Amino acid sequence: MISLKDLQAQIPHALSSIDLSDFGSGSYGKVREMVALPNQQRLLVTTDRISAFDVVLGVIPYKGQVLNQLSAWWFEQTKDIVPNHVLNIPDENCLIAKEAQPLPVEVVVRGYLTGVTKTSLWTLYNSGTRDAYDIALPDGLEKNDALPNAIITPTTKALAGGHDEQITAEQIVRRGLVSASLWAEVEQVALALFARGQTLAAKQGLILVDTKYEFGLVNGQLHLIDEVHTPDSSRYWIQNSYLADKSKPHSIDKEFLRVWFHQRGYTGDGAPPTMPNEFIAQVAQRYISAYEQITGLPFVPAAQPAKARILERLSSHFAVLNQTNPKWW
């Protein structure tokens, strides 16, 4: 494991952004920078930016590498359930994917009653709501209780500067966001993915608590896109800590960061508090630990600074591709 001191030293080299204009026209998400490529392909570079409460809060060294490599691992573990968009991984932070038409909803699957955000199931339940997302929950549940069955609680995809909003399955179909038949397929696939995730996590002594999936259509076929079962998109607890005290399970995900901001009164509105370097290093160490605990593989840090490495590898990758297939570009 990389020491906190060494992680603090890498903070100035964290990948906050990267100019990909040499490879095509791009767009920018909270965490990823994307470029449209020829032949219905897309380049995605996962930066070290970190977001919560729908706000970019800073950068965490090696976070982009963790997300990209962990997603690649999970895509491989779940490709028998649903096709995914992966074509090539030319760098630790990069992914070349099939161009997909994203569905306009985020598919959140929850196995436990927990969370601190305004839209979390526990926050809604604790305020008295028993039918959030049109899903009936019984009285008497406590924070961090397992739900009787995993449930799907979809949200809209917020525009820049906005916040995701809860939406029901009935509203998704009625508004024409997704057809009834396609939404039925999405629900079946999402629950199967979550079950696979919980099974593999349990083998590593972890609990996959909840997660978010994004789906898209490639030639009319449903594909899993974006990322899967990462500390950004998912909540993980250490199984033994949950069994010892379910009120305070140890997490290896972004919840550590959410709680830090929540304790300082920040929930997504206004200017966020600045993270001190010591805390940034702790978050980085948790991301790396999550990768190792989930996969059982050692984390091998890529060469830094990441920006120069990524641009060199992408240039080499596309140069070789053009030599072997001149019509590609």
Features:
14 strands; 329 residues; five-stranded antiparallel β-sheet; D-amino Acid Aminotransferase, Chain A, domain 1
Concise overview:
The longest helix is centred in the middle third of the chain and has 24 residues, at 180-203.
Can you characterise this structure?
It is a single chain. The protein is an alpha+beta fold and 329 residues long. Helix content is 34%, strand content 23%. Strands 8, 9, 10, 11, 12, 13 and 14 form a seven-stranded antiparallel beta sheet that branches. The chain is globular, with a radius of gyration of 20 Å. 37% of the residues are buried.
Q: Count the helices. How many?
A: 9
The total count of strands amounts to 14
Helix fraction by DSSP (H/I, runs of at least 4): 25-40%
- Broad CATH class: Alpha Beta
Mean pLDDT, as a whole number?
93
What's the SSE pattern?
HEEEEEHEEEEHEEHHEEEHHHH
| Distance separating the two termini | 41 Å
Low-pLDDT segments, ≥5 res: none
Quaternary organisation of the protein chains: single chain
The rounded Rg comes to: 20 Å
> Which fold name corresponds to the CATH topology?
D-amino Acid Aminotransferase, Chain A, domain 1
Tell me what the CATH architecture is: 2-Layer Sandwich
Largest pleated sheet: 7 strands, antiparallel
Shape: globular
Going by CATH, what is the homologous superfamily?
ATP-grasp fold, B domain
**Helix-strand makeup class:** alpha+beta
Q: Name the beta content range.
A: 15-25%
- The number of domains is 1
